[in-house]
Write a structure and sequence with these properties.
This protein has helices at about 55-65, 105-110, 115-125, 165-170, 170-180, 180-200, 225-235, 240; strands at about 25-30, 35-40, 45-50, 75-80, 85, 85-90, 110-115, 130-135, 140-145, 150-155, 160, 165, 200-205, 220. It is an alpha/beta fold and about 250 residues long. The strands form 4 sheets. It has a 5-stranded mixed β-sheet, sandwiched between helices. Strands 10-9-8-13-14 form a 5-stranded mixed β-sheet, sandwiched between helices. It has a two-stranded antiparallel ribbon with strand order 5-6.
Length: about 250
């Protein structure tokens, strides 16, 4: 029986240039507090405020205004929610609605690829083997890469304990509610449990709150939010991906 090929994940694009290699990429990391921007060849990350009132149309307009002096010919977006076949399937938990049906390609006038935000940072953090990524930010992002195959995960809103979700404990709400010491205790516990469950030999903790940890759980390393931009660039660097730095599900 012929071996079934992996199903293509959210790195698909809605336009014919999806498989072309682009040399100037604008990477957009959409978060619950800020939208962070970096383009190929630029050294300084730019930010625009996000939050509960930010729609996709607002984001696109503000991003274009913020980077009008940058050159780019493709866009990579890290989206704070599940993405299937290059399209968001749920509205973001911490932002305004209007993201699922938005035409990103039309808004930017460039080829666009969309991936879960944690998956984009995981893509930029990956070295080898079985890597679990957890993003400790406004919410809780999660992704796994196994032998170069990227698999976004959605752990944030699964039940954890006392009627609350993993995000309620490990995200910003948990940090604010419990204080740093109890929050860190839960982070260490969840990392140990998930690492054992998925048999990860590498755990990366990213997101803005990861730097608030006093030490790291065994087997974990600290990620960098800048890795999200590396992941965004890799989404369009097909030749690099194909030749083994990271390959995504559906790659040959």
């Amino acid at each position: 029986m012929a071996r079934k090929k992996p199903v293509s994940n959210s790195l698909a694009s809605n336009n014919s240039s999806a498989n072309q290699k682009h040399h100037h990429v604008l990477a957009i990391d959409v978060g619950g507090t800020n939208v962070k921007l970096l383009a190929t060849g630029q050294k300084t990350v730019r930010k625009i405020p996000s939050g509960a009132n930010l729609t996709a149309a607002d984001m696109a307009k503000q991003v274009k205004d913020a980077v009008k002096d940058w050159q780019y010919d493709a866009v990579a977006i890290g989206y704070p929610g599940p993405v299937v076949q290059g399209r968001p399937i749920n509205e973001p938990f911490n932002l305004a609605p209007g993201w699922v049906k938005f035409d990103y390609h039309k808004a930017f006038g460039k080829p666009v690829k969309i991936i879960n935000d944690a998956a984009m940072q995981a893509l930029g953090s990956y070295k080898k083997g079985r890597m679990l990524f957890l993003g400790l930010g406004t919410g809780l992002g999660s992704a796994m890469i196994v032998d170069g195959v990227l698999q976004p995960m959605e752990l944030a809103h699964l039940p954890y304990k006392k009627g609350r979700s993993y995000e309620d404990y490990l995200g910003k709400r948990g940090l604010d509610r419990m204080g740093r010491k109890k929050w860190q205790k839960n982070v260490f516990y969840v990392v140990a449990q998930l690492r054992q469950a998925v048999q990860a030999d590498d755990v990366v903790l990213g997101g803005g709150n990861a730097k608030k940890l006093d030490g790291l759980p065994p087997g974990a390393r600290l990620g960098s939010n800048k890795n999200a931009f590396i992941g965004g660039f890799r989404m369009w660097q097909d030749e690099t991906v194909r030749h083994g730095i990271v390959r995504t599900a559906g790659s040959k």
